[in-house]
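Hi there. Long-time user, first ticket. I'm pasting a complex I've been working with (about 942 residues overall). I'd like to know whether the download I got is complete or cut off, because the file seemed smaller than I expected. Thanks.
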Amino acid sequence: MRGCPPVTGGEGGREGRLSGRQRPLVDTLSRWVEIPSVSTDPEHAQDVAASARFLRDHALSSGMTRAEVWETAGHPAVFAERIEDPALPTVLIYGHHDVQPVDPVEEWDAAPFVPLERDGQLLGRGTADDKGHMVMHLEAVRGILDAAGHLPLNLKMIVEGEEEDGSEHFDQLVAEHRGDLAADVCVVSDTGMLAEDQPALTVGLRGLAYWEIEVRAAQTDLHSGVYGGAVLNPLAVLADLLAGLHDRQGRVTVVGFYDQVTELTAEERSQLAAVPFDEAGFIADVGAVQGGEAGYTTMERRTVRPTLEICGAWGGYQGEGAKTVIPARAGAKLSSRLVPHQLAPQVTEVVERHLRGALPPGVELDFRLIHDGPFVLTPTDHPAVRLAARAVESVWGRPPAYIREGGSIPPVATLAGELQLPCVLFGVGLPGDRIHAPNERVVLGQLFRGMEAVAEMWRLFAEAGRSGLSR
Amino acid sequence: MRGCPPVTGGEGGREGRLSGRQRPLVDTLSRWVEIPSVSTDPEHAQDVAASARFLRDHALSSGMTRAEVWETAGHPAVFAERIEDPALPTVLIYGHHDVQPVDPVEEWDAAPFVPLERDGQLLGRGTADDKGHMVMHLEAVRGILDAAGHLPLNLKMIVEGEEEDGSEHFDQLVAEHRGDLAADVCVVSDTGMLAEDQPALTVGLRGLAYWEIEVRAAQTDLHSGVYGGAVLNPLAVLADLLAGLHDRQGRVTVVGFYDQVTELTAEERSQLAAVPFDEAGFIADVGAVQGGEAGYTTMERRTVRPTLEICGAWGGYQGEGAKTVIPARAGAKLSSRLVPHQLAPQVTEVVERHLRGALPPGVELDFRLIHDGPFVLTPTDHPAVRLAARAVESVWGRPPAYIREGGSIPPVATLAGELQLPCVLFGVGLPGDRIHAPNERVVLGQLFRGMEAVAEMWRLFAEAGRSGLSR
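Hi, the file is complete. Here it is re-exported in full:
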């Protein structure tokens, strides 16, 4: 591909140089999505393993010269590479092959693991997050090789199997395979854009702390007639605790919660405000209701402000009909999205202290941090980021916005920190992809354009050379 | 039995005249408990039907001369009778053969439908509520007949199959069988006592209104990274709604909630305070935490004050691990115990109005009344109540306390209202029986004494004659 003119964008890259790979991309992705690689559910452990083998085999058939399943103490990752010439730049692609659970499954229009192609989209768990991105990269490899016989640089992929379950063993995997993973640049493909006609590169990610709590107020469930009115109801205690986490302005009431938050400068805020973003449409597209911290825009609330959300809650009778019970216990899952420079241990400490302080005497509280990952900030003036932006512009026909994403990708912090790699966060997801929710889908045109864009990115990186890619 | 000296109490009635029926009582109850007659669960419909047939057959073998399964549009009831002489008083016994669900089943010490006898107790769903009471009555019949060849009065039993599911078709059943159900006195055996050494007769029951609510704030579940901070989280909305139902004094904040409540006079309060009742022990026995409305005793809170309790709540991710989701919806089951002279329709109206008034704009609320039943008050100066008290005293060795129960038995209102029957609420349950909770049990000594007490009650009722039983 070296020396080729840049591909052009247009209708989903239909006239792109790699358009012959579009149908194979959809077919491969469909077959892969049929493997329900839900990493949080032990019953799907064999499926995650099968997903890894599928990816390994597909990487080899796509032209990677080495592909291996790397076992971990949890779910396996896949490593693949094609080394053309050690003198050329080396890119390490990061992604994951595990997927989110599918609950509530009754809200899907089709079976989550029977991909459904309709209206230029592919519906199914993992289509956007993140199998689609990995197939996009491998089809780009196949297409470049079919045309040129070789890649313009060296390519490596590390595709983990535990991203949706906290990437528990990723740090260890990186520590054990430093040599294999050595590269000049890391390209992380697990993010999104603002709209089909508004490309973006992500330059910041929020971190995450995720807790599970349980309050207990009796040894056993109690009859609401016999005990009702005379004992503390743990569901009422839980409701009080949860309702007390925010004030009427949507601000988190936990003392110390904002202590480490770096407030944006007026200039940073105006830069963020300049990003093309339909605030009302973003909310309306999913039928949601505007909410959040007073004094901030929707874009700020979801990217540069920290949150404290209730991700789940339960207690008492949830079945059909009327069970007159006061439960013994009630629980919830809470999570915070962390922004620079909040750290999970400190936030965990203040949240736990707040909850314990609000607990009525005699009620017991279990509080457990079950998952965390740090925030990420990428320098926008790094040569790799600027070349990636050129590649994106060449396909979409307009320069990408630099955005900060609300979500978390903990391994990015590992790759940036442990391997000292500059990270380019290039993904083609869209706000309406419903990742982590029923009816996840990917817009196929985004994957097709993405395929063209990474081919161009590799060309530009190769042109810059190893020295040109370092700051 | 007429003319026999009253039986004496002591160790669980071991030396009672019916002590030969103790082992058959335990054996029959155990076999009946093995039939999982959970009326709220459609999957158990056949079991409820089997339970009805079991009871019909056992009533006949116990000496009742007529026993029939009465079908309803829901679960079947059982009617049984033994008419000795139309000139004698007729007692109608009320109870139920359906049972509560067993969730959370993992908190049981043994399988809920495999009765376990230990330490003088029988563990299993329905042992106390209410199969134990029905077997107690039938073994008393068998015992009296074995000794005397006839009953001292006419006995009828109506045992419904939908008490735990709202007694939906009981009113219709009563309307259709007025003639069959005609009696002089109704004895309801679905209540309890204060302690093994403190017998009681119940003279008041709280009513019930039970609602299911759901709040919806989006069309679909949302990723907490992408949307977190910018949209209303229905779990947070629900927590606010639930937390707002009570003030810091434990008083229900719903405007109008207390409008119909008749406050007790100072004399009524001091009578209630005189009932032997271990307030601290009552709470401590189940490892619960004192709670409720300021300014009232535990006994008052659980019997003469109304409540608004959360019986269940749900939303978002409840599985293993960390799913970073903002759910589209969240729900709860709420119930009120109603006291004289609160009525379910009025309370339903003010609760719904309160919740809708507290709802943030744009959030949808479903609010449904799914079950209700009126409060009951029985006159303590009725001859039937006073004779029942004598029978209880003859067995337990001390007079029963007159108590008001916190629970609801909607059919009692039907029997008292539609059939104009004086109702004696005689049951032998204990506060620690954990009805509606895991590890339901019955204290067998209570059933044995109860058997002796009802035999004595029939003797006293017969002695009084039909005219002596009316006021």
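A couple of notes from our side: DSSP finds 13 helices and 18 strands in chain A. Chain A touches chain B through 99 residues (CB under 8 Å).
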